[in-house]
Design brief:
By secondary structure, the protein is mainly alpha-helical. The protein has 9 helices and no strands.
């Protein structure tokens, strides 16, 4: 039971970390952001104009940045002798955040394999109706894309607004 609770905690941490990066992309980074702008932010802006745009991309085309970050994390952990099952789980979930995000853009009946739709129906993976709230104006909530758990809590606590009061002026969309 302890291992299951630990695994759930790791998944929620991955959801939060990838949600935090998503919030940074949406709120502060632009196509002019050094290094990241051209490679990441242009695709993010296109995705917000057309939520279906990135569904056409392969896993690698939409997740190369997460894959690269995950591999660097694992290699660093290996050299620091900190390669644990928890870190492996965190990296695997984080590397697939964009794929899970893609699944939240199509109905659970359209998702293949069928287990994806079942996991959405069971509220384990983020559902289309839940993620759709991120794409409604003013597009300033529901940044976490892996589960349905964190967004209601973070949004109710005004977590992102508190961070914005610390980080300062958001970019204009």
């Amino acid at each position: 039971m302890f291992i299951l609770l630990k695994a759930i905690g790791v998944i929620l941490v991955a959801d939060f970390v990838t949600g935090f990066v998503h919030w940074l992309e949406d709120s502060y980074w632009s196509p002019e952001t050094p290094i990241l702008g051209k490679w990441l932010i242009e695709a993010n802006l296109e995705h917000h104009k057309n939520g279906q745009a990135f569904l056409k991309k392969s896993w690698l085309a939409s997740s190369w940045d997460l894959y690269l970050t995950g591999m660097i994390t694992l290699m660093t952990a290996y050299y620091l002798n900190f390669l644990t099952w928890e870190l492996w789980l965190f990296v695997i979930i984080s590397m697939n955040a964009n794929q899970i995000h893609k699944w939240a853009h199509i109905t659970r009946y359209e998702n293949k394999p069928n287990i994806i739709g079942l996991l959405q129906k069971m509220y384990i993976l983020q559902r289309t109706d839940h993620h759709g709230q991120h794409h409604r104006k003013p597009n300033n909530s529901h940044y976490c894309v892996i589960t349905n758990i964190l967004n209601p809590v973070l949004d109710r606590l005004q977590f992102w607004r508190m961070l914005e009061s610390v980080f300062g002026q958001k970019k204009s969309v």
